[in-house]
């Protein structure tokens, strides 16, 4: 280990440090190797706990606190605690601590992280996530790591307060407020609304669909602007100067992740597709998409009238985020309209507390119409089950009607999506969404003989009806 001893130059007002401090040199003068090793060890420690105990609660905590650990260690090793180093290190520590604390609080409330449902029991897939988290922490920490490194601190430093410093502090304040408040607004919205499909369009979310992402991005660019100040002011030269400028890879890497890997691409088009196909406030959400910027906050009244070319360029509304029902939906427009009409019809009936009858009929196309009584059970029975909490039906009501050997299936007045229609030769549908099997004929008119197999009722304004269908 080598040591450098320096004395501060107080008369210049440019070099602010503590005299006779010991600088620690470990592996390299940029602290790249030591921070990488610490990050790998830190993440593997938490990975071993998460994988062995199937425990999700420490995953995000490990990521956020890793930033704090790296900032503390590099600042302590540097031996030169000038104001810029302290501010930049504190900024990333505050951000990392807040992020990890919020995510820990959220996972303690929810109890489980659905992101890992397909990875939790697979060693290599689960490890892959943790390796990606290692790179995320190490790369995003680069501006602070390099600022605190001996290769940079060996040069005289400009006094804190340059234009780059001031701009960085202002941007950081905006970013940390926006990210923190947005996280709280979204969490409270979900807690206070039992309908999880409702749209959060209040607060910062009325100006941006992802204000927390925007805040996180400008936080990292703000820290870079502070860290690069010695190079921008001409006090750092050679490889150290290049290294400080190259540390912009940190905020660029984070921006790339959020915009093209794990953030917007996983939420925008897939989220809109899910809403469209399930008819979860689709019309309202479609209007929200047109009025609200995807990332950069902007008044919705102005954004709605903005030319598409500006949305696509300045406001980053790239085509990869856009959901086009004609291209991306798994159900056709006719099926979507049918389901939308059915939901509207059900709402009107419920508001009037009327009765609604759902008919499931099975007819043999090649024989005489079957009697209204149920035929004997068969291995090809269809089942219709209704669960209810309505006072007049206090217990679940299974309605199972065997329908063996039939080739025409008729559905009227209800959605029983998910039923196995593999044996159907002809299908007639009215106000319903039914998966049409390949090779089956969709009839335009209801069959003349269509005795109903089961029927249930609308449960009224305060009822809770759930219909399940399947093949035994």
TrEMBL record:
Pfam families per the UniProt record, alphabetical: DUF1295
Keyword Phosphoprotein attached: no
UniProt keyword terms in alphabetical order: Membrane, Transmembrane, Transmembrane helix
GO terms for cellular component: membrane
Keyword check for Transmembrane helix: yes
Domain of life, per lineage: Eukaryota
Spans through the membrane: 30-49, 61-80, 86-105, 126-147, 159-178, 213-232, 244-266
PANTHER family attached to this UniProt entry: 3-OXO-5-ALPHA-STEROID 4-DEHYDROGENASE, 3-OXO-5-ALPHA-STEROID 4-DEHYDROGENASE (DUF1295)
Stated name of the protein: Steroid 5-alpha reductase C-terminal domain-containing protein
Species this chain originates from: Monilinia laxa (Brown rot fungus)
Taxonomic classification: Eukaryota, Fungi, Dikarya, Ascomycota, Pezizomycotina
């Amino acid at each position: 280990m080598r040591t450098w001893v320096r004395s501060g130059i107080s008369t210049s007002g440019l070099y602010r440090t503590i005299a006779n401090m010991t600088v620690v040199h470990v592996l390299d003068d940029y602290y790249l190797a030591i921070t990488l090793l610490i990050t790998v060890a830190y993440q593997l420690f938490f990975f071993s706990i998460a994988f062995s105990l199937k425990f999700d609660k420490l995953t995000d905590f490990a990521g956020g606190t890793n930033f704090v650990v790296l900032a503390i260690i590099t600042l302590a090793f540097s031996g030169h605690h000038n104001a810029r180093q302290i501010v930049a290190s504190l900024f990333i520590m505050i951000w990392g601590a807040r992020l990890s604390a919020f995510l820990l609080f959220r996972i303690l409330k929810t109890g489980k992280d659905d992101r890992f449902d397909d990875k939790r029991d697979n060693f290599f897939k689960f490890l892959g996530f943790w390796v990606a988290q290692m790179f995320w922490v190490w790369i995003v920490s680069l501006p602070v790591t390099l600022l605190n490194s001996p290769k940079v601190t060996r040069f005289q430093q400009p006094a804190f307060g340059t234009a780059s410093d001031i701009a960085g502090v202002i941007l950081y304040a905006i970013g940390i407020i926006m990210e923190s408040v947005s996280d709280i607004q979204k969490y409270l919205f979900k807690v206070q609304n039992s309908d999880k499909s409702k749209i959060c369009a209040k607060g910062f979310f009325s100006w941006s669909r992802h204000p927390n992402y925007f805040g996180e991005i400008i936080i990292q660019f703000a820290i870079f602007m502070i860290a690069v100040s010695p190079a921008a002011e001409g006090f750092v030269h050679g490889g150290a100067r290049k290294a400080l400028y190259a540390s912009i890879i940190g905020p660029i890497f984070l921006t790339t992740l959020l915009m093209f890997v794990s953030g917007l691409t996983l939420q925008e088009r897939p989220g809109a597709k899910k809403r469209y196909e399930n008819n979860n406030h689709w019309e309202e959400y479609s209007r929200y998409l047109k009025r609200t910027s995807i990332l950069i906050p902007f008044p919705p009244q102005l954004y709605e009238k903005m030319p598409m070319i500006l949305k696509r360029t300045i406001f980053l509304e790239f085509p990869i985020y856009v959901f086009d029902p004609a291209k991306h939906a798994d159900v056709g427009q006719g099926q979507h309209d049918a389901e939308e009409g059915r939901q509207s019809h059900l709402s009107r009936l419920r508001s009037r507390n009327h009765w609604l009858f759902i008919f499931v009929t099975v007819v043999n196309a090649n024989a005489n119409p079957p009697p209204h009584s149920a035929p004997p059970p068969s291995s090809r029975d269809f089942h219709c089950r209704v669960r209810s909490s309505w006072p007049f039906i206090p217990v679940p009501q299974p309605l199972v009607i065997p329908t063996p050997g039939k080739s025409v299936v008729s559905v009227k007045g209800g959605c029983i999506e998910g039923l196995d229609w593999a044996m159907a030769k002809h299908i007639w549908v009215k106000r319903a969404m039914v998966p049409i099997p390949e090779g089956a004929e969709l009839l335009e008119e209801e069959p003349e003989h269509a005795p109903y197999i089961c029927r249930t009722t609308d449960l009224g304004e305060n009822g809770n009806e759930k219909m399940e269908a399947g093949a035994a």
